[in-house]
């Protein structure tokens, strides 16, 4: 009996120590977060209970719909301190966006930070990919991907970018012959997916229109699993046990299975081609990754690589359709380059009106509005002298960085010459993240988007369908709600 009381006392004592430790830790975090403003949660129509439970998730969730209310709210939250605090459920996190703070946090050693466990649960199908690796494992895996995205390799992909864009221009012009406006999103997505498969993975994707639509639907379904939810029903549906028995969960499971089957086909086909320059073959033969790890990484590259470029191209076409004079200026610029013997690959790497325009698209329509939050594994001292304690969660606010009036003059206005006429501070323009974790495929992305835009403008003229309302919405990436509809006709000097 004495042993029982002793063990019970010891258990209570250890529990009390744990609670005391957590209380002190929370006090330290609370004191640190008080150095930054916390925006008001929700609006008058939101109940107090809803605000207490969900926190700023209410406001973020307004990004996913037919209005841009969530982004308007985020713009209002930007402060001169370059960071502010938000709360998702009970977890607080620091949203960072001043160039100095961004540089500090994104260059912390990989051993000092770890990804938020809550977000790992949301992206559970990708947890064995490089996206969620930590420390030495992350560094080792990333080294495998870097050679495939260096400029020398991207130059080899240029023919795929150009031929794919030529094919897209033909399809757009054919669709535009009816005189009706064309929904461009799916055609652009088909281009970016096929190009990525052929260039990076060495796979020729030959799909029927029905198969292409099904694949597109599967990608959308998977993307929807990653969006932020504000209703209790949606959040409960993310619990694996409950998701398994819901219609939504079954649809998601089927979409993941279809895409995993596609990845398995890619791996099997790549093994037969035996080309070391193809990423899928290289990962199977030259790394120690398991098949599941390779599949997760191929899925990640396929999903992120084609979806982000698709969004950038669609938004670029939207802005071009609003500005016929800009279309004319870009065509004249490209013609002048060609007259000097400069080919398209060289042109898209140069500083030009085209490069400035594409950068402004990527600033104004931040394809990935934020990066997965990370948590400090030990305390660090910030450049301003503040000590960020162990347990601090921070999130890189790409949208906030690009709308920060301290970094940009009139950031709410779209200015295609902004990056020609102004000096932009380092780490103020971060569409591909920043620091050590900057997207490994950023050169691939920039080169493809610029090549596609230059090629399409050679053949096509774009005019906006003003009867079709466009708003920004976010699923996995920033997309136009209900897509973009354009009137498309042959460029007059090519007709």
Please characterize this protein's 3D structure.
This protein has 495 residues and is α+β, with helices and mostly antiparallel strands. The protein contains 21 helices and twelve strands. The strands form four sheets. The protein has a five-stranded mixed β-sheet with strand order 1-2-8-5-3. A three-stranded antiparallel β-sheet has the order 4-12-9. Strands 6-7 form a two-stranded antiparallel sheet. The termini are far apart.
Question: Topology, please?
Answer:
Layout (H helix, E strand, L loop, with lengths): L1 H32 L14 H7 L2 H4 L8 H9 L5 E6 L2 E6 L2 H8 L6 E3 L1 H6 L12 H11 L5 H26 L5 E2 L1 H16 L8 H16 L7 H5 L3 H4 L3 H27 L5 H8 L4 H32 L1 H16 L4 H6 L3 H12 L9 E3 L3 E2 L5 E2 L4 E4 L1 H5 L15 H4 L20 H18 E5 L7 E3 L3 E3 L4 E6 L5
Parallel strand pairs: 2-8
Antiparallel strand pairs: 1-2, 3-5, 4-12, 5-8, 6-7, 9-12, 10-11
Helix pairs in contact: 8-9, 8-21, 9-15, 10-13, 13-14, 15-18, 15-21
InterPro entries: Cyt_P450, Cyt_P450_CS, Cyt_P450_E_grp-I, Cyt_P450_sf, Cytochrome_P450_Monoox
Family: Belongs to the cytochrome P450 family.
Keywords: Heme, Iron, Metal-binding, Monooxygenase, Oxidoreductase
Average of pLDDT: 85
Give the percentage of residues in beta strands. Answer: 5-15%
Task: Determine the CATH superfamily.
Answer: Cytochrome P450
What's the architecture, going by CATH?
Orthogonal Bundle
CATH topology title: Cytochrome p450
Cα separation of the termini: 97 Å
Oligomer: single chain
Question: Helical region count?
Answer: 21
Radius of gyration: 24 Å
Biggest sheet, spatial arrangement of strands: 1-2-8-5-3
3D shape: globular
Largest sheet: 5 strands, mixed
As a percent range, the share of helical residues equals 40-55%
Count structural domains.
1
Tell me, what is the CATH class?
A: Mainly Alpha
Q: What is the number of beta strands?
A: 12
Structural class: alpha+beta
Low-confidence stretches: none
